[in-house]
Structure formats: C-alpha cells, structure tokens
Amino acid sequence: DIQLTQSPSFQSASVGDTVTITCRASQGIRNWLAWYRQKPGKAPQLLIYLASTLQSGVPTRFSGSGFGTEFTLTITNLQPEDVASYYCLRLNGNPVAFGPGTKLDV
Amino acid sequence: QEQLMESGGGVFEPGTSVKLSCVTSGFTLSNHAMHWVRQAPGKGLEWLASVTYDSIYKNYAESVKGRFTISRDNIHNTVYLQTDSLRLEDTGVYFCARDSANYGPGNYLNPWGQGTEVTVSS
Prior knowledge:
Chain A has no helices and eleven strands. Chain A has strands spanning 4-7, 10-12, 19-25, 33-38, 45-49, 53-54, 62-67, 70-75, 84-90, 97-98, 102-105.
C-alpha cells in the first residue's frame, strides 16, 4: 500500500502567520488527495479535495497544491480557531489511508 | 441537511462483540459508498472499512480484517460495523463518513458523523 507522511508533526504559530503543511506519498497518486482539519473533540472537516479544490464554505485562506508525491496545505492569516490537527487522505484506490497528522498550535 | 449519526458505543470486555450503527438523513444513501474510520485516544485517524453502494464490494484495514464486518441497509438509511473479538487496542471513537462516489473511493469523504466511543477494558 502507498504510505503517506506529513511534516511537521507539530507546529506552533501566531495569529496572522502563514503555515505550510506537507504531505508526501511513497508512490505517485496523481491529485487524489484531500485535506481535513479536526478540532479537539470534533469530527474531521473537509478543507480541500483533488489536491487543490476548496470545499464549499471553507475560508479562502486555506489552499492546497501538489501532484504526484508531494502536496502542501497552506493556511494564510492564521486564526485562533485553526488550533487543530490536520490530516491528508489519499483516495487513489482501496484501501484509502490517512497521513499521521500535523498538530497546529496557535 | 445531510447528517450522519453513529450509535452503539460503550464499554466492552475484551473478546466481546458490538454492532455500531450509522443512521443517515438528508441524502440518498443508496447513491454513495460509505466508510468507517476510528481514532484511538490521542492518536490520528485510522481508516477501517468501506462498502460500495450496492454492498458488492467491501474493503478492510489489515488491523481489523476477519474481525470487523461492514454492512448497510439502504432501505433504512443505515450503515453498520460489526466488531467481533474486541481487543484493548480497538478503543477509540468510531466515525462513519460518506464517500462522494457510489463505488468509491471518490474525491473525498464528507460529511462525517460526530462519532461513537468504544472502550474495551477488562
């Protein structure tokens, strides 16, 4: 199975900062990647799909890019509500798999 | 409003079984593949199982293959996860999520339920 890694595993930032999280696949997955934000005690929230398509209702300060094996989630103008864990999810075939997550502290 | 609601969690002894339910509303369940995902305390998300819209194909994570069974009832808008031979490491919050496609995987899993907590303890 294709494995996902994420970096960093933990990041501390300040309100207004720009943060970039990277997700790497062990083999190419084209653009079959989604990003989720999970606030403490809540279900994951879809942010980005097909690597760069913003989910409806998600603030435009979230953006995604990448293709093949390297993907990035960028959050600009960081807000207090962005304290959360962020996960990438590959959907290039069964089984799907999540990255290990990035915990963001604001 | 599209919603998913899990139930069936609780405290269980090792070796026992429990059947989790995911009741859906606000959309046509028979148009979508469905998934179960869990999260152990303080850990990341772990995909467990998926089922196509017609129940023909089911996929499982190696960690639960042979112990867990996913099923669905499109008439009653419900997806199930039968968990047998529970282990301590099965403790966690169990989420169901809708696939964007009928056979899956599609472009994303969304929406998600709020989860049901399973604790395996002696």
